[in-house]
């Protein structure tokens, strides 16, 4: 009997046991279809993650931070700072202390006409009106700065391995008064990072988070929001990002680590699942993870990259609970699948700009290749198909894809899907079989395979590297359980 393949369209779920979950969704964005007054042909569909195409090159890299404000794109590439205009011309502003860590950049708008840049435990200022660039010389600026931000006209700077945050004069990153500081006081763990959202200052420790605000008091400018300490800290200092009107981060607390949280109105909710957390726990190191958020074709996507494990996980924050997929870069030099190419993100000049973790390239998200010419491998490994204690014969497997979508010539002009199957729960797989999806205009092409055979625990996998805008929307199977 032909039935829909339940779960063929879905996220990644690597269970603790392969018998529980082997699902992989690599370089696809799962989308829940439908809405008021519509009746889509399928409940969910896959749409390609964006490629990366060169916008410009700024220095030798890697790009450790990028921001956009008031028509100005500023990035840190290696040990240099650049300003980039809309046409992609990169102008060097100055040198900074080298570091392997991510670099933060914050501006104070037309009120101060300054950008504050943190790199290598030091702070640097660029005045975009006068062009002056240099280190923050005030003796009251933290001597071992690890994070910065901006709120209500003040630059904030965190002193590494402490509970102290200093703040500048109003719209003046040059002047830092010795008494203009506040300390995390409701909890005892040191601050690992700070971040501002909705004019609230989040002080993330290793096991707890305090929230502070500007009260307007002339003598005590910043005070804690009373009664709302969060009993979850942060694992990776750079593993946090604003998500709309909320904050998301890779957490750690007194009970353990490897859980992702999202805070809305002082009430954190867990956004990771058991399988994702188990996967993260298997990585050799997670405290160097880095995160950013971007919105792509309506999806608000929270991106977390793990450089040591070379993996990138992405949560669609518009679904409840979030659906997680994987985002990868196929390194042509090694032939291996690695974490996403973009390390940091800014939206400017109407483009999503990401900084390369490999060199000084600033990429625009979009296109059908990674790094201009590298094919993108997209994989769906679907859930198990089985009947307990019985063999299952699959007579036919069919996919609903955008057939007849193809390039006019060259790669992608005769697009195909690479299909393979497992009959032992994903432990071993058959050789790949190529399924044609139709040349340009061949919209009635059937994407199917017959007489797969008999097995006890089926896992089906489909993959493609074709540089075309093709979506997948459903699948079906014709299967018969053998007699007990």
Structure commentary:
It is built from 2 helices and 46 strands. The chain has 484 residues and is mainly β. The chain folds into 2 domains: 2-49 and 378-481, Jelly Rolls, CATH 2.60.120; 61-319, 7 Propeller (Methylamine Dehydrogenase, Chain H), CATH 2.130.10. The strands form 12 sheets. Strands 2, 3, 39, 40, 42, 43 and 45 form a 7-stranded antiparallel beta sheet that branches. Strands 23, 24, 25, 26 and 27 form a 5-stranded antiparallel beta sheet that branches. A hairpin with a 3-residue loop joins strand 37 and strand 38 (374-375). The longest helix has 8 residues, at 274-281.
Number of strands: 46
Helix content: under 10%
* Mean pLDDT rating: 95
Number of domains: 2
Individual helix count: 2
In the predicted model, the low-confidence regions spanning at least 5 consecutive residues are: none
The CATH class of the largest domain is identified as Mainly Beta
Shape: globular
CATH topology of the largest domain: Methylamine Dehydrogenase, Chain H
Tell me the fraction of residues in β-strands, as a range. Answer: over 45%
What is the CA-CA span between the terminal residues?
Answer: 18 Å
Question: Structural class of the secondary structure composition?
Answer: mainly beta
Task: Summarize the biggest pleated sheet.
Answer: 7 strands, antiparallel
At the fourth level of CATH, the homologous superfamily of the largest domain is YVTN repeat-like/Quinoprotein amine dehydrogenase
């Amino acid at each position: 009997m032909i039935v829909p393949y339940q779960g063929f369209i879905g996220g990644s779920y690597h269970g603790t046991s392969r018998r529980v979950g082997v699902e992989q969704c690599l370089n696809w964005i799962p989308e829940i279809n439908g809405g008021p007054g519509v009746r889509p042909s399928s409940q969910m569909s896959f749409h390609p993650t964006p490629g990366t195409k060169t916008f410009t090159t700024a220095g030798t890299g890697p790009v450790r931070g990028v921001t956009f404000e008031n028509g100005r794109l500023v990035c840190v590439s290696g040990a240099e700072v650049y300003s980039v205009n809309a046409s992609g011309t990169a102008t060097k502003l100055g040198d900074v202390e080298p570091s392997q860590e991510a670099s933060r950049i914050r501006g104070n708008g037309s009120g101060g006409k300054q950008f504050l840049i943190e790199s290598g435990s030091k702070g640097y200022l660029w005045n975009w009106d006068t062009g002056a660039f240099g280190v923050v010389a005030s003796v009251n600026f933290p001597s071992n700065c690890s994070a910065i931000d901006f709120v209500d006209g003040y630059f904030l700077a965190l002193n590494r391995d402490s509970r102290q945050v200093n703040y500048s004069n109003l719209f003046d990153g040059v002047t830092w008064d010795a008494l203009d500081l506040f300390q995390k006081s409701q909890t005892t763990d040191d601050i690992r990072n700070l971040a501002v959202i909705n004019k609230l200052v989040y002080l993330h420790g290793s096991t707890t988070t305090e929230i502070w605000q500007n009260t307007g008091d002339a003598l005590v400018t910043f005070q804690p929001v009373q009664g709302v300490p969060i009993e979850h800290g942060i694992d990776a200092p750079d593993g946090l990002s604003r998500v709309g009107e909320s904050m998301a981060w890779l957490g750690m607390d007194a009970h353990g680590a490897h859980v992702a949280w999202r805070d809305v109105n002082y009430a954190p909710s867990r956004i990771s699942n058991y399988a994702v957390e188990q996967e993260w726990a298997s990585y050799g190191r997670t405290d160097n993870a880095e995160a950013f958020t971007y919105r792509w074709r309506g999806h608000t996507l929270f991106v977390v990259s793990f450089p040591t494990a070379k993996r990138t996980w992405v949560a669609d924050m518009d679904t409840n609970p979030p659906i997680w997929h994987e985002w990868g870069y196929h390194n042509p030099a090694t032939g291996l699948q690695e974490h996403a190419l973009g390390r940091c993100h800014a939206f400017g000049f109407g483009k999503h700009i990401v900084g390369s973790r490999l060199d000084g390239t600033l990429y625009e998200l979009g296109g059908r290749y990674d790094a201009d010419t590298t094919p993108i491998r997209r994989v769906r490994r679907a859930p198990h198909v089985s009947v307990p204690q019985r063999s299952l014969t699959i007579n036919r497997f069919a996919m609903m894809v955008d057939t007849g979508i193809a390039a006019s010539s060259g790669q992608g002009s005769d697009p195909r899907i690479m299909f393979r199957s497992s009959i032992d729960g994903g432990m071993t797989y058959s050789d790949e079989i190529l399924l044609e999806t139709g040349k340009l205009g061949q919209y009635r092409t059937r994407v199917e395979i017959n007489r797969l055979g008999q097995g006890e625990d089926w896992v089906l996998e489909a993959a493609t590297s074709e540089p075309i805008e093709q979506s997948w929307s459903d699948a079906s199977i014709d299967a018969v359980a053998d007699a007990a």
